[in-house]
Design brief:
single chain, about 400 residues, alpha/beta, Alkaline Phosphatase, subunit A, 2 domains, 4-stranded parallel sheet
Length: about 400
């Protein structure tokens, strides 16, 4: 169970406790008391992980070897899984004026069903022999996938990340000239297709920001990753509400489980995710479950909200405690710290507790950053988690005679 952004630093308004320490968490504490804990440098000491690189590490992959950028992961999260050599971009539906100056990077936070209609004109698009696929994502976001020979992800962003003129995409290496040319052509074409689109004519009449351009950013080549089942000799599923985590799962070959009520937001149904995960264990060897809510509260800088989220996480841990099959190995971990004071990810280590029958209990009795630092698992890296779980499940092979 990956509790996104759970870790924190001491917070003044919580009397210098972390949100974990301030929360009422009897069920998480039960797992800590009856299991073994430690702290994890998800990538390495002092390295600030993204949610994408952190999940790759937790699944046992070395992000320095397999991570190629967020674009392919976002694309995979929407169901667009390319092949090696394809290039994917994150995109925003945005509003520009007649001079191509961005007036709203999120087009009023437009969302479905409007975005679903706005991507339809791109069906079947080909530019200079390169296949172009566009798919809507969450709210104002979309993804762009380019397929064909001679592509490179070494290009700049069209998105200016502010209220300035749309940037011309430039190649960052000689081999990327073709890709830059195609992306620039795509941006211009998106404006011509969207500016007078019926959806935008309606939005304009309703005094809403129009979504009259797509702005690509964050290019990445689709990586060549050893599938999870081949790497670990286990079947696996992913239970998540956030498209980014679904993308990680798809790229690694995990089955994506769609759970009603799993919104990826503060209102997500945590118990429904837990039930779905247990159902998956009836036919799968491994389940990765992600819950995003703590990270959202921390990015908002809202300590009280993060404490409330943790107490809901604890309720879910209580459900798992009551319903877990006896032969299951369970790990509770964060993918990174998101300190309230920073409102962003930090390089601090995160707490980890592992529980299974026969687990040697350490002296820890609570699940929090300080207690975990004294636990029997010590201080490990994110990519060490899977081998430990693998061994606890009785699946590891002897090294040597």
């Amino acid at each position: 169970m990956v509790m996104d952004g759970l870790g924190d630093r001491a917070v003044k308004q919580l009397h210098w406790k972390t949100p974990l320490q301030a929360a009422v968490r009897p069920n998480l504490n039960w797992f800590a008391e009856h299991g073994s804990s430690g702290i994890v440098d998800i990538i390495g000491p002092g390295i600030r992980p993204g949610s994408d690189t952190s999940h790759l590490s937790i699944l046992g992959y070395d992000p320095y070897k397999v991570y190629t950028g967020r674009g392919p992961i976002e694309a995979a999260g929407t169901g667009l899984v390319g092949k090696k050599g394809d290039v994917a971009f994150r995109c925003n539906f945005a509003t520009v004026d007649d001079n191509m100056v961005v007036t709203d990077r999120r087009a009023g936070r437009i969302k479905e069903p409007d975005t679903t209609e706005l991507v339809r004109p791109f069906d079947g698009m080909v530019i200079d022999g390169i296949k172009v696929v566009v798919k809507e994502a969450t709210e104002h976001r979309a993804v762009l996938l380019l397929s064909g020979p001679g592509l490179s992800a070494k290009v700049s962003d069209a998105d200016p990340h502010g209220s300035t003129k749309v940037h011309e995409v430039i190649p960052l290496e000689p081999e990327a000239k073709k890709t830059a040319k195609i992306v620039n052509a795509f941006v211009k074409k998106s404006y011509s297709l969207l500016n007078d689109h019926p959806v935008n004519l309606r939005r304009a009449s309703e005094k809403q920001p129009v979504a009259n351009i797509l702005l690509p950013r964050g290019a990445g080549m689709f990586p060549e990753i050893v599938p999870f089942e081949e790497k670990w000799d286990m079947t696996g599923s992913c239970v998540a509400g956030v498209s980014l985590i679904k993308g990680i799962g798809r790229i690694c070959g995990l089955d994506i489980v769609e759970v009603p009520g799993a919104t990826g937001g503060l209102d997500t149904d945590m118990i429904a995710k837990a039930k779905a995960s247990l159902q998956q264990l009836e036919s799968r060897d491994f389940v990765l479950m992600n819950i995003k809510a703590a990270d959202i509260a921390a990015h908002d800088g809202d300590a009280a909200k993060k404490v409330a989220v943790i107490e809901r996480l604890d309720d879910m841990a209580g459900f798992l405690h009551a319903t877990l099959p006896e032969d299951v190995v369970v790990a509770f971990v964060a993918d990174h710290c998101t300190p309230i004071e920073m409102q962003d990810h930090s390089g601090d280590p995160v707490p980890l507790t592992i529980y299974c029958p026969g687990m040697v209990r350490d002296t820890g009795a609570t699940f929090d950053e300080a207690a975990a630092s004294q636990g029997g698992l010590g201080r490990i890296r994110g990519k060490d988690i899977m081998p430990i779980l693998y061994d606890k499940a009785g699946r590891s092979e002897k090294f040597g005679a």
